[in-house]
Every structure is written in structure tokens, then in C-alpha cells.
Amino acid sequence: MAAKKHPIFDTATTLGKLVAFLGISSVCGVLVAGLMVPAVALAGGATTSGLTMFDDIPDEMTIGTPALSSKILASDGSLIATFYNQNRTEVPLDKISEHMKNAIVAVEDARYYEHGGIDTRGLMRAVASMAGGGSRQGASTITQQYVNNVIIQTYAANGENDKVKLGNDKQIEDKVREIKLAISVEKKMSKDEILQGYLNLVLFANNNYGVEAAANFYFGAHAADLNLQQSALLAGVVNSPNYYDPVANPENAISRRNLVLDHMLDQGMIDAKQHDEAVATGVDLNIQPNKLGCVSATRAEYFCDYVTNVIVNDAAYGDSPEARRKLLEQGGLTITTTLDPGLQDAAQAQFENFTPMANNPDRVGQALVTVQPGTGKILAMAQNTKIAAPEGQFASDYNFNVDSFDKNGNPLGGAGGFDVGSTIKPFTFAEWLNAGHRTDDIVDASVRKYPLGFPWQNSCGVSSGIYDDNYPGASDLQNAEPGYYRSFTAREGLYNSLNTATFATAAKLDLCNIQKMMTATGIHNGSDPNQPYNLDNVSSLLGSGEVSPLIMASAFSTFAAGGVHCDPIALLSITNAKGEPLPVPPANCSQTVKPEVAAGVNSVLQQVLTKGSGWQIPLTYPAAAKTGTTNQSEHTWTIGYTRGLATASWLGSPEEKSRSNNGLLVANQRIDYIDGATYAGKTWQGYMNAMAGWFDVGAFDQPPASMVYPPAPIKPKEDPKDKGKDKNDGQDKPTGDDGSYKPGQDEKKD
């Protein structure tokens, strides 16, 4: 329809007709006077107290952006979750069905395109009815209803819902104000602009605001695709959303719909055949339940929760957490995240093989999280629970993968990390190389006693810890298997995950520098990211410190990226309702580890998967990894990577962190001993074999030869009395391809 402008009053006798009502009833006198004021003002009549009141009312109305739902999207644009306090999605008028536009005009304001904001005929009819003792009748035009909705929306947006007045709560001055504002709006906006604003604001019941949200909720359709009967049904709802709610009161809704169709027929918008066919239909709803927030996320609900916490915690999005929450729920944000749906679904599917939500009586927790090396992008974040799981399934409020708090002390919803076990050992090895040592330098892994007062070097503080059975309650340093207490290359010590080899290397280093190496790769305390991984007690060299899986995956990705560390990021972009970009946290990528050091670590961690502690879980691509198991298998890990993906896999108890997982039901069986490769490793293997090929799986750079091989020792003169003796001094002879000791597969444990 053409947007047609006409004077405010379409007859010269309107004022006289209104004035005639003044004597009808003293009860209605004040109301009539209030409603006639605009006419008098426009006609240029004498000034009265009523006119003064009218003149004093502002005719400016701030039409801000209505409360719009925000959407969190995966990296491919697919929907993860929607946030709102009013479910609304704005659409332009050309994206709304002609049937819908006609239906709303037909039933709410038949002369919409003829008046200038006030329909005098309807106004007089309403006044006459009330003056004669009849029921109160509505006289509001679509423009007046639009004004009223803008006022309500403004109060709601400002948190002033107590100021909202509906129906009989309105006083004369409220109605007069709406009239004057309607006149003003008609002068500044076209009919199409007003109709578009109205259809995007009005309530269609069940918390659906605007026709696009209503079309989707009731029919699973877009506003542009609404047919005649659907349009008439929705147009009927706005008069009394509760009474004409098609879900709760379908008979009322059909009755009102048919009235709308009658109006459309009378006004020539449809013909008799269209009318009769539409009237013959039922309600025919196709309800699409509104999904609000992360609990109703299509996937990755804990990643969704992490994203919302990142936004609500960041001052870039508002002056207070309340303001930032309001922006999320009302700002119409489009939040595009780093999540890869394919990786996310593959990660989530792995848990069904080991600790499914529906058959996990011991509540064994599992988590997988993937970071892209060189970018910091979080591509997957999965765990084997739901925030609001059905009865009988594993539910948890905690995100197993992330820290408890951010650097400003704001909550992130995480479990605060878990003891990382032997997955921490590569960082001591990285500092070993960084300090000028070589991968194949010999270390004495036979040393098991580290008594009180052992001269640990720690320029950051003092380190303590006793491994010596000469002290009451203490024991010598242990390896997982008995035959490993002798000299090894540093390489062998790491890929076989020997505690004594790690201590032998650390004893030649400054522990402060080991800590700095950990910090350079992003490792920090899982409960306080401002605190570095604590090496005050040397037991932490073996993993008695809590770090979250996300941070561990990010740290290992530093090696995969040739020593480039990136902070893990979850956000690619955020735009507001106008399409304007908002800032997102950067990854802050920088070279924090020397490339040759990263290459040296990679060369050894690849052997973990071929002849070390992870020999059972190799990938079909070039890959590196480290397993980890705490003393009583309370927490078991495999953290590994290709050039394109770095993934941390954890299994343990999020609720009882000191509980052993040995003997618990995992993968439909109970076994006496679980280590890092047993289930965490197999979960990692299955996931990475399935998904790594979609990303970079090229070979890792090789470390320089000078970092690998020690200089040839000066050969001592042979003592004649030693002639013919075994130079291995009774130890097992080297059997590995590189001349190193190669244990049997049944001996390889973390």
C-alpha cells in the first residue's frame, strides 16, 4: 500500500462533534475534554487550562533500538544459543508477508492510511459509548499503539518497569501524551516506517515480541512466508495476547482470527473464496520452543557459558556486569565464535565410548578441548555432562575445561583445573634445551634421594620437598616401573616419563627459569591466573599442581606452533544491532619459546607415541603427545598435537579431586589401574585420528643437530685388567634403533 498522508482531522466538523459530547455526562466530561484538546490545539482555538496542559507535553519521542535478542554463533555461522529478555528479531517491512501487513491494518486500524495519527471516527465512537454507559472501547490507531509500545520498551530498557501503564491504569494525561506523540510521529515518519516499527515491537504472546519471532515460534516460519490464515491468527493475538494465545486458548484464537478475516473481506483485501478457505482451517501450529541461553544451546553449552562469562566480565562491553548482561540480553548482538561444529560434535561423541552421561554411575568426568596452534582459537570444548541434565544423567555446573576466575577475579565457571601429573614434564625439558643442554645428553636417573636441604637452584625463591626414606614419613623418588633407575639420555627420560630423569635435569637448572618457561607457554594456576605454576615444592615438577585443560592445550600448542604462544580466544567478532563492530579480546600471539627449543621438544614428544608412555595411542599423522597420571590415578591425561590441532584430554572426578579412578566403571569395565593412555589417551586418539586430517598434518621441523647430539667424549685409555668386560656394567644392552635402551611394551607405563 502507498503511504498516504492526510490532515489530522478528515472533516471540518470534527471539533463540533467532540464538543457536543461535553454535556452528555459529567462522568465522561473530563475524559472528553482531554481527548478534544489536540483538536482544539490544531484548530488554533482559544487557550484554556487544558490547552496549556497539551502545549506543555513534549512532542519529541526518542525512538531507540528495541530490546533485541542476541545470538552466539559457531565459526561457520550456525546458531549455538540465543539470549533475550524479549524474544525479538527485527526485520524490514519488505520481509513481512503482505497478508500480515493487511491483517494487522484490517483489524487494528482500518483507516490507517487515511488519518494523520488520530482516527477521529473511532475516537468519537469510543467517547459516545462511554458517555452512554457502554463498555470502554479502544480508539488507538496503529500509530498510537506504536507510540505506546515505544514508551513501554523505553521503560523496560531502562529497568523502569514500574512506570509502565497498561489499559485502565492510564490517566487522562497519559492518553493525551500518546495522542500528541502520535501526531508528532506521523509528521516525521512514513506510514511504512511506523508499520514496520509496530510489527517489530508488539507482543504476540509467549514472550514473542515482533512478527519474526512470533512466526518462528508458532509456525516455524519467517515473517515473509506467513500465509493468510497464519497472518490473521497473529494479527488477532495482539489485541489481548493472553486471551487470544493460540497455545493456551486455541478456540479464542480461532474466533479472533475469523473476525480478522471478516474485516479483511469487508475491506476488499481478500475475496470470498480466500476468506472461506482460511476460515475452514484449524489453528495448525508448529511450535518451535524458544531456546534461551546456554542451557538450551544447540551444542557446546559449556563453551557457550564460557563465552558469556568472557563478555560479561569485560569492561569493553559496559561499565558494570549488569550493563554487560543487559547488552547481551537486549542489544541484538551477533557474536561469532571460534567454535568448529565438526570438531565439537566429534569431541562430544567420544565420551559415549567411555563415560556416557546416561550410564555413568560413578560420575567419572571427562573433558576434551582443542586449540589451534598459531592462532589461539578454541575449536572445541566438550565434557561428558550437561548443565541441566535429565534425571539419571550426569549434570554439573562446572566447566571442566577452564579456570575458575579470569585475571580480574571474575568468575569463569570453571572447576579450577586438576593436578596435571607427568604432562608438566615437557616444560622442564624445554628449559633443559633452552639452557644449552641437548636432547641426548646423559642424565643420571638412578638418583632417588633428594633430602631436606638439597641444593635446588631457585632465583625466584626457595624450593623444598623431601624424597628420602631416611626421613620419617618420606620415601625415595619412585618411577612407575622398577627397572629404570640408571643413566639415560634426557630424551629417553622424557618419552618414558621417568620421574628420576626429570629430577636429574631439574637439579642442573634454575627452577625459576623452569617456571618462566611454563609462564611463557601460558601455564598458570587454575584457580588464580595471576599466580604462576608453583614450584615452591619440587613435587610440582611431577605434576602436583592444578591447571585447567584449556590452558594445558594452549601451552602444548606453543610447541606445535614453533614456539609461538597465543592466548586462547573464543571470539572472532561481535557486532551490535546496527551491524557496528565491537572489540574482541586479542590472542596476543608472540614468539615466547625459541623455535629450535620447540623443535627439540617436538622431536622427543613424537617418540612418546611410538616407543614411550603413549605407544598404545599413535596417530596416523605426524603427532606429538605426553601422557600424565597422578599418584593414585586421581587424574589422568593425554595432551597432544599435530601442527594444526592441540588437544587436551582429561579423565577424573570433578567433584572429588582426590578420588582414585582405579576400579571405577569406565568403558563398561572396571580395571585395577588406569593411566594417562588408558582412557584419556584413547579418547584423544579417536578424536584426533578422526579430525586432525582436516587441518595441517605436515611434519614438524627438526631441531638443529647441535641440540641433539653431545660432543664425542675423549676415549680413556683402557685398563688392561678391564679387557673383555661388558662396558654396560651389567645393565641391559641398548636395543633401540638409535642405540638407546628400548623397554619391552609390557613395561611402558607412565
Describe this structure in words.
- The structure is a single chain.
- The protein has 23 helices and 18 strands.
- The protein has about 750 residues and is of the alpha+beta class.
- It has a domain at about 15-55 and about 85-280: Biosynthetic peptidoglycan transglycosylase-like (Penicillin binding protein transpeptidase fold), CATH 1.10.3810.
- The protein has a five-stranded mixed β-sheet with strand order 2-1-3-11-12. A five-stranded antiparallel β-sheet has the order 5-4-16-15-14, with helices on both faces.
- The longest helix is centred in the first third of the chain and has 18 residues, at about 25-45.
- Residues about 1-55 and about 715-750 have low confidence and may be disordered.
- Mean pLDDT across the residues is 86
Instruction: Give the biggest sheet.
Output: 5 strands, mixed
Q: CATH topology of the domain at 14-56 and 87-279, which one?
A: Penicillin binding protein transpeptidase fold
Name of the CATH class of the domain at 14-56 and 87-279: Mainly Alpha
Percent of residues in beta strands? 5-15%
What's the alpha carbon Rg, rounded to whole Å?
36 Å
Number of helices: 23
CATH architecture of the domain at 14-56 and 87-279: Orthogonal Bundle
CATH 4th-level superfamily of the domain at 14-56 and 87-279: Biosynthetic peptidoglycan transglycosylase-like
**Side-by-side strand order of the widest sheet:** 2-1-3-11-12
What is the molecular shape?
elongated
Backbone structural class: alpha+beta
Number of strands: 18
Question: What's the helical proportion of residues?
Answer: 25-40%
Question: Spans with pLDDT under 50 lasting ≥5 residues?
Answer: 1-54, 717-749
What is the end-to-end distance? Answer: 76 Å
